[in-house]
Amino acid sequence: MPMTPRAGLEVDDSLAAFIETEVLPDLDLDTDRFWSGAADVFARFAPENRRLLAIRDDLQARIDAWHAERRGRPYDVPAAASFLREIGYLADEPAPFVIGTRNVDAEVATLAGPQLVVPGLNARFVLNAANARWGSLYDALYGTDALGDLPAAGDYNPERGARVVARAKAFLDQAVPLAEGSWADFDDPSNGIAMRDPGQYVGRSEKSRLFRHNGLHIEVVFDPAHPIGRTDPAGISDVILEAALSTIVDLEDSVAAVDAADKTAAYRNWLGLMKGDLAETFTKGGERLTRTLAPDRTFTASDGSTVVLPGRSLLFVRNVGHLMTTPAVRLPDGSEAPEGILDAIVTSLIACHDLKRQGRFTNSRTGSIYIVKPKMHGPKECAFTDALFDAVEDLLALPRHTIKVGVMDEERRTSANLAACIHAVRDRIVFINTGFLDRTGDEIHTAMQAGPVVRKGDIKSSDWIAAYEARNVAIGLQCGLSGKAQIGKGMWAAPDRMAEMLDQKAAHPKTGANTAWVPSPTAATLHALHYHQTDVFALRDAIAARPVPGLEALLTPPLASGRNWSELEIAEELDNNAQGLLGYVVRWIDQGVGCSKVPDIHDIGLMEDRATLRISSQHMTNWLLHGVCTPEQVDAALLRMAAKVDAQNAADPLYRSMAPDPANSLAFQAARALVFDGVSQPNGYTEPLLHAFRRRAKGEA
């Protein structure tokens, strides 16, 4: 690819042009000084980045050898803990401390509500997510299985509509009760609405009344001319909920960004969000539509003053981790630059448009930049990120700790040293979040040589999972995150199963977590109901008073000691893993789709990204290593499931079948490599192989 020399760096032409013609001109930053400063950041941090990755490899090699020597013996947790401390895997606990983060927006610090994660390469999805701050409860209930069944195809069903209205008004009775009677009987808004708690009333617009409960807003829309409002005694046509308080624009697990063109496209979407001018035109139902960012919402309070509420989620950007490099920039020695360092520089540079209030809208009202940093291993890697963000702030002349960090607690060494990790970023941390999927992949890989793990479905009930989730909240509260930062829970991966989500995800606020991930704007609207059911902040004192769970359960891997599975059970497990693996990889390699709703082996659509892929591939690798299955059984499962995945994608005109010629299918060969080369992949990550095969696919195209 054509490269442009800049301050000793070689920068891809398209990326250089994007930064110099689209990003820098409005920021009063001299181009030469920017590139010189960027080159200094790479010179300072690239060698340390490589050294930290070498430490990861060394620790894993020692752990592998320790497990291999003891294979066949009962797992000895105290001995394992002693060994991990001896090699530096377990760090010393810091003295008690409270984080010092300042200038944090309320959506993160003092409110509780859903959080969306959206692929940064898809502008339409990004806009949908950013606009998911507000969602129609009527639409979410009518259009999903939230009521227990799905709507029938065809015209509007009045009977179902009545059930939706009844459910929504029952919610209003619970969240914003009237002084007398039920919302179901309310029939005259003309003389005002008498509330049991008048303080819940916030204001009004021409057609609506706005209320607040547990910090979240509820807008009741009155429109007697609307088809729904015409049938309602009070003319209520909808109930609008404040839903996705925040959204993570993802440059990592949910995107397939393997070269400068991909990176520049993702950065351009982030720029459009920060400037407020991102737009996407598309065809839906035969109609040409253009989507843009939603404006703020304005209401009039009882005293005549104006109430302005954000129309969009507060936006984070998720950078990549420390592992990968990118051909978008080459260092003076000719090597690819660490991608995470490039992300830190460019995403922060772009966010300066928001800080300088140069866009149509404001993202952070407190003047902060929010970056989620994934896949860090332990406190030294967190400290590296803290120092890197210091350097980027200096490069961009930003006050110290303008750049905030969200720490993904998704790797075993971070979980085991969480307090020390928080301490390393204590003045900029705004977020800790459990990520069950990546965390499970790392659990399998770390204990790869210890023995075969239990079946994938059984891992969810392992002791370490419960300890992991409980420790995350307990340690976060102990370190003073409440009122200053988010404590979050992971994703609901079945976007078509909202009734199950309403049942199961109600548990997340009850843990004391003030956010949890959802896969769609509709899911965000429904998940918002849980934060009305549970006042998260009212629970935290009691939760914080409980002792922090110890390390013993956390350090117990999910090994299948003495278990012999039948041939049928082994085949079922291999088929399940192989189907999920191929269903995701084929879109990643052939079409560059990093996150999508992929039918599982039972044809149920699940949101898949690299985290789910990491589990499936590492699980098969583990069973292969320990002789639970043979290479022939793995290959047979992959071939069976290639045919199934081909059939599931038969209606996609862009799809390339795998089963007829697997030897010449890059997607099939990538999936196979993830299993057969899984032991040697750094920490079990899928990115190195995926990137290599995707680049080949793009080259062939």
Automatic annotation (TrEMBL):
All residue ranges annotated as the Malate synthase TIM barrel domain in the record = 315-545
- Write the record's keywords in alphabetical order, separated by commas: Acyltransferase, Cytoplasm, Glyoxylate bypass, Magnesium, Metal-binding, Oxidation, Transferase, Tricarboxylic acid cycle
Q: Name one GO cellular component term.
A: cytosol
Q: Where does Mg(2+) bind?
A: E410, D438
Q: How does it assemble?
A: Monomer.
* GO MF terms, alphabetically ordered: magnesium ion binding; malate synthase activity
Q: Which reaction does it catalyse?
A: glyoxylate + acetyl-CoA + H2O = (S)-malate + CoA + H(+)
Q: Using the record's annotation, list all stretches that form the Malate synthase G alpha-beta insertion domain.
A: 156-185
Give the matching InterPro entries: Malate_synth_C_sf, Malate_synth_sf, Malate_synthase_TIM, Malate_synthG, MS_C, MS_N, MS_N_TIM-barrel_dom, MSG_insertion
Subcellular compartments: Cytoplasm
- Write out the catalytic residues in the record: R318, D609
Function, as annotated: Involved in the glycolate utilization. Catalyzes the condensation and subsequent hydrolysis of acetyl-coenzyme A (acetyl-CoA) and glyoxylate to form malate and CoA.
Protein name stated in the entry: Malate synthase G
Every Malate synthase N-terminal domain range:
16-69
Q: Which cofactor does it need?
A: Mg(2+)
Q: Which family does it belong to?
A: Belongs to the malate synthase family. GlcB subfamily.
